[in-house]
Amino acid sequence: MTKSDPYAFASIAAEQIIKGMGVVSLPIDPKAIARGRGIEVVAKPMQSEGVSGMLVRFGNDFAIAYATHLQNEGFENFSVGHELGHYFLPGHADAVITGDTGSHLSRAGFSSGNKYEAEADRFAASFLMPRHLFYPAIQQAGSGLAAIENLAALCKTSLHATAIRYTQCTRDPVAIIISRGGTIDHCFMSATLKNIDGIDWLKKREGVPRNTATYAFNQVVDNVLHGVRVEATSNFQDWFGGRRSIEISEDVVGLGRYGKTLTVLYDINVPEPEDEEDEEALIESWTPRFKH
Ligand SMILES: [Zn+2]
Known about the structure:
2 domains; 292 residues; five-stranded antiparallel sheet; Beta-Lactamase; four-stranded mixed sheet; binds zinc ion
């Protein structure tokens, strides 16, 4: 986490609450924590598309409703965590609810450009996956999509939220990509991967590279809905450009009703800079020179 991260404070606030409560093991149960604070928590079918939950205020009393349409416990926990973000983060309740009685409809899940929604999302991720418990869990989790699945099962969080949190916390060079059809919806790269020089960062709304397992996967609509899972390999250059043609692992899974695909790129073993220089010097020494 860097100083330039505008949401770091939301993360730290969430982690301090978990530490302050003396919670020492995963999973975190956001519904129980909310109820422990006297907040009523109810499941509710939401009418409008994309609504994940709701924070309701009557003066000093609060209630949380969470959407159940995705039938995904991880998403429900995240939705409740998001509403707790509005409850706990300074200024949020007053900003998202006008007056001292009313309600706020949330669209949780990292796609909103709204500052308060983005802060509440970050709060939720850190509340459910606080670093002091998540770091040790990563050590035990394995690698690739399997690691993210193990962590999601441990934390009772969605694959999507867990994958994003994983890239924020792992020391390995890893990228996760959320795509729909031929388009990258959004993506996250770990700090170690970002620090590799001479690569293009994956960008939002860019096309999925054609020569990849993800591209082929997304050609079959049922793969997404049925949660099909593929372990493949691809070339580092296809995803990140640059001059290193190395094989990396590419795991792909359909996210079911969420309608999108999760890709995990890992096993990225970029040679040490000294080795690369040696190699370049060798190629240079063998390359014939021509006079113009
Ligand atoms: Zn919200």
